[in-house]
Amino acid sequence: xxxxxxxxxxxxxxxxxxxxxxxxxxxxxxxxxxxxxxxxxxxxxxxxxxxxxxxxxxxxxxxxxxxxxxxxxxxxxxxxxxxxxxxxxxxxxxxxxxxxxxxxxxxxxxxxxxxxxxxxxxxxxxxxxxxxxxxxxxxxxxxxxxxxxxxxxxxxxxxxxxxxxxxxxxxxxxxxxxxxxxxxxxxxxxxxxxxxxxxxxxxxxxxxxxxxxxxxxxxxxxxxxxxxxxxxxxxxxxxxxxxxxxxxxxxxxxxxxxxxxxxxxxxxxxxxxxxxxxxxxxxxxxxxxxxxxxxxxxx
Length: 299
Fold this sequence. Notes:
Blueprint: E1 3-8, E2 14-15, E3 18-25, E4 30-35, H1 40-46, H2 50-56, E5 58-69, E6 74-78, E7 83-88, E8 91-93, E9 98-102, E10 110-112, E11 115-117, E12 128-133, E13 139-141, E14 144-146, E15 151-156, E16 180-182, E17 185-187, E18 191-195, E19 212-213, E20 218-219, E21 227-229, E22 232-234, E23 239-243, E24 249-251, E25 254-255, E26 262-264, H3 267-273, E27 281-283, E28 286-287
Parallel strand pairs: 1-4, 2-5, 3-5, 4-6, 5-7, 5-8, 6-9, 7-10, 8-11, 9-12, 10-13, 11-14, 12-15, 13-16, 14-17, 15-18, 16-21, 17-22, 18-23, 21-24, 22-25, 23-26, 24-27, 25-28
Antiparallel strand pairs: 19-20
């Protein structure tokens, strides 16, 4: 079967669904998919107002005590316009692609008391444990992330990939903004939390619909007003926290080793567009080895 659990509003208001005490493993695509199954371009054509698209998507969903593992593409997918999905005590493990994917214009999700481990190892470059793709006002609390492929959590605004060749591709209306990542553990990760993870990525092959610069290789990413606070980072294989957009807060995090634990800056945007990262709040971040993890200007 392609998918384990599908919650589809079919374009009519749907709220209050609860799923408890289930396992979803070894499906050909996703373990769990929550969506409104109409194609993106048709949603925009039929319902130009975003408030109406939100009204017709699933909302107020509870997933509790689930195990989602070894699904071929993604573990849990929360699709566009879905609102307020709570994932409590879920285990998302050993999915070769993304562990969790929160799609554009979805909002208000909560991941709490959960584990996200060993996802994203099915491709050469790896995938994150959790992708927050132009999804806003979410919270990730008291969850363990361990040994995910490319990173634990990435926040970014998709560049409107393949806009000219895929008629179903649609622009993201805002970035990955106003998210809170609080009180989690990050273990054995290449990057723990990566804010604006596509800011310095060459996206020329993605045929982006948003304006590109520097020989068409880069598109400005957007992930602002996010808070990363009171998290613990252990056995890092790279950076703990990377900040590549403006107006984010990194507060009260703890690292085993301070050197290189936090990176603030975006070299391509700063050099080419003369716009370094500004407005970052760094406060009370500490390391067990006594080295100050809080960097000076890095652009």
